[in-house]
Amino acid sequence: MISGVKRLVGMMLMLTGLLHVIYGLFAYASQLQPIVTEGLWSTVANDQWDRGTAFWYMMFGFLLMLLGYMIDWLIKKKGIAPPAIFGWILLVICLFGAIVMPASGFWLGLPQAWLLLQM
Asked: Which of 107, 113, 22 is nearest to 62 (CA)?
């Protein structure tokens, strides 16, 4: 049986993803605006690094929300812990990200990875 804070890890990942998207909407507004106004289709070309960065920043937030939802669903609906590989991969991603970009939000994922590894 999974209890306590461990049951919140999925919700914490969803919240982290949501904060990522909300922050991205403001931080990358000038890059996202032309993507939307130009009609979305093929609006990020290979030489448009600013738009590509904004796009992938936003997509990472949505992927965190998806991962959090799946973990939450596994724990609450099925009563089973997610596979340990989720915690290990999140740990590696966040450690590498925090090393390469210390002034970033990668630090937020470390406690969540640790909680996943404790299940």
From this structure: 22
Structure tokens at 44: 């990020």
Burial bucket for residue 20 (CB in 10 Å: 0-12, 13-18, 19+): buried
Report pTM: 0.84
Question: Each residue of 9-44: pLDDT tens digit?
Answer: 999 999 999 999 999 999 999 988 888 888 888 778
In the chain, the amino acid numbered 63 is: L
User: What's CA 30's distance to the chain center, in Å?
Assistant: 22
CA–CA separation, 30 and 44 (whole Å):
13
d(CA 87, CA 93) in angstroms, rounded, equals 10
Give Dmax over CA atoms of the chain in angstroms: 50
Helix (H, G, I), strand (E, B) or coil at 16: helix
Residue type, 78: K
Does residue 1 surpass a pLDDT of 90?
Answer: no
Which string of b and e fits 86-104 if b means at least 16 CB within 10 Å?
bbeebbeebeebbeeeeee
